[in-house]
Design a protein that fits this description.
This protein has a single domain, classed as Alpha/Beta hydrolase fold, catalytic domain (Rossmann fold), CATH 3.40.50. Helix content is about 45%, strand content about 15%. Strands 1-3-2-4-5-6-7 form a seven-stranded mixed β-sheet, sandwiched between helices. Strand 2, helix 1 and strand 3 form a beta-alpha-beta unit. The longest helix has 19 residues. About 40% of the residues are buried. One of its GO terms (molecular function) is hydrolase activity.
Amino acid sequence: MTLAHDVAGDGSALLLLHSTVCDRRMWDPQLPALAGAGFRAVRCDLRGYGDSPVPAEPYSDAEDVAELLDTLGADRVALVAASGGGRVALEVAARWPSRVSALALLCTAMAGHEPSAELRAFGEREDALLEAGDADAATELNVRTWLTPDATEQTREAVRAMQRHAFMVQLAAPDVAPIRAEYDLGAITAPTLLVSGARDLVDFGQIATRLAAELPDARHIELPWAGHLPSIERPDEVNEILLDFLRVDS
């Protein structure tokens, strides 16, 4: 299955992978800036998000992404990814290092990370609400957790719509487990930018700090104002950070 996607601009290929709180619409503020800077910017919906259906059999997000790159004829690509999309980007960059020219990760998740008590409590509360059939309350929990109090109501409504849609699609489908592949983060060769938010859950700053120390060519920026979704809350500021990095490393 080819992931739902759209393309803007011409030039070097760049793929945007969304947070699992959102879908590809989260990149609305980034797409014009990246296309205008000379990139062929592609954004896709991972399975069970946006316009990509839930799979009927075991699947791999990373292999879906590799298949999408093949479909697009993109032998080499820069990856920009947020949160759960960052976990997918790390796997792609580790399994197919020659295909990734640069890696920009915003508040990224990481396979194997031991969650903090706060993150575990969030997951348990979300699960309980969904098991009780209260997707609206689970959606509001996500909006409160992942956006700062400074977020505009327009931003909150955008995240609310994306998260609730994902819940509705996923809850209506059979539960299918993803395929967990073995890979070594030490295989990553792409220059890497790690962005975290000082107002996010501690887990994501910890992950960024660890990856900055472990990856061969990586640097970490912590944004003092940011929560978990900085590209949505202050897009112009994040666009500038991304373009500064990508222009150097593309």
